[in-house]
Amino acid sequence: MQAMKLSNDGSVKAIYSYREGKKLFRPLMASKISAGFPSPAQDYIEGKLDLNEYMVAHPAATFFVRVDGYSMVGAGIQPDDILVVDRSLDATHNRIVIAIVDGELTVKRLKIEAKEYFLMPESEDYPSIHIHEGMDFAIWGVVTYVIHKV
Hints:
Helix content: under 10%
Order of helices and strands: EEEEHEEEEEEE
Shape: globular
Oligomer: single chain
Mean pLDDT: 81
Number of helices: 1
CATH architecture of the largest domain: Ribbon
CATH topology of the largest domain: Umud Fragment, subunit A
CATH class of the largest domain: Mainly Beta
Distance between the termini: 35 Å
Radius of gyration: 18 Å
Low-confidence stretches: none
Number of strands: 11
Strand content: 35-45%
């Protein structure tokens, strides 16, 4: 694989591969947590949750990307977030994708209209990218999860 440059809008900072190995299980509460009015606490745990198993459906096709830039803040993607990316999924209209455009990696929302392809930022501060004949363009994968600190 040839070396890729980061996008000039700084949307991709680093790429990490998925590595199968020891499972890391954490307790999973049996009841849901209210995001509205508080509800009485439940004192039991439903089981154990392995985040790898939960977030990685296709291990051989999954990698992680660290975000560097603000072009996707409207989609809840912030600088230093980690994106879980699945290369086995179809890149369809309105999905958030990792793309290579003229040798540079970027994260954008894929827009398909009348057989025209666009990579759309989720911030008014960045321009959309119209994909046209003659461009070096490829979809690397579809973003399935965003991991960030709160």
